[in-house]
Structures are given as structure tokens and as C-alpha cells.
Amino acid sequence: MNKLRYITDEDFKIASRYLFLDMAIEVIQKDLDTLRNNTIFKINEPYIKLLESVERKAIEERRELKQQMHMKNLKVLQTDKNDMFTEYTFYANRKEEKRNYFNPAIRKKVLLILEEYF
């Protein structure tokens, strides 16, 4: 069964990368906060510097994606969530497409982005 697509593959790729990159940045920032406020390692500083470097690169990519989304009039919003699934609605050119993601799959997508940056 073919799923009806309302937005282009390119637009979907940009918006979904933005969505999951934004989540990855949140994870990095929480980890940085944890490292800054707790002595987890004997020497935290190298880990903090590494995470700060990764954070800067990820924020730069997110900024570029946000510019592309603005130029193409793309938006993505969380529209529903339960214990198992989270629904996001992608908006492009006055059209919308709803996508449901299995919550562990979201975690996996964020993990892949983190691994890419490390």
C-alpha cells in the first residue's frame, strides 16, 4: 500500500532532520548541564569541551536547516503523544502530512545523530 505524500521528499528530509537534530541538541545540553553540575569523571573539563564543540556544530546545522525551512515555508509540530507514539504534523505549501513515530524509534533517530556528531 502506497502512502499518500503531501510534501516532497526533499521538504520532508529537511523538516525531519531539523526535528530530530533539535532533540539531539536538547540531549547534548542536558548532558552538559549534568557534567557542569556534578563530578562524574575525575576530570570533567575535556568531556565538557567535547560536548560544547559538538553542541556548536549541531546548533549551526540546525540554524541552516531553520533558514531552509523558512525559505520553503516548512514547519513541523508535535500534534499528539501517548506512551507508545508521538505524532508530528509537517506543513509545506499550505499542505500538511501527519506522521506517527514509535517513541523508541525517535530515540534511535536521535542516537544516530549523536553518533554522527561524535
Q: Describe the strand arrangement of the main beta sheet, using strand numbers.
A: 1-2-3
In N-to-C order, the SSE pattern is HHEEEH
Average pLDDT confidence is 93
Low-confidence runs (pLDDT<50, min 5 residues)? none
**How many strand units?**
3
- The secondary structure category is alpha+beta
Oligomer: single chain
Percent helix, as a range, is 55-70%
Terminus-to-terminus distance: 38 Å
Annotation field: number of helices: 3
Describe this structure in words.
The chain is of the alpha+beta class and 118 residues long. The chain has one domain (9-117). The chain contains 3 helices and 3 strands. It has helices at 9-37, 45-72, 103-117; strands at 74-81, 85-92, 95-102. The chain is elongated. The model has no long low-confidence stretch (mean pLDDT 93).
Looking at this protein, list some descriptive labels.
single chain; 118 residues; alpha+beta; three-stranded antiparallel β-sheet; 3 helices
Concise synopsis of the structure shown:
By secondary structure, this protein is α+β, with helices and mostly antiparallel strands. It has helices spanning 9-37, 45-72, 103-117; strands at 74-81, 85-92, 95-102.
Topology at a glance:
Blueprint: H1 9-37, H2 45-72, E1 74-81, E2 85-92, E3 95-102, H3 103-117
Antiparallel strand pairs: 1-2, 2-3
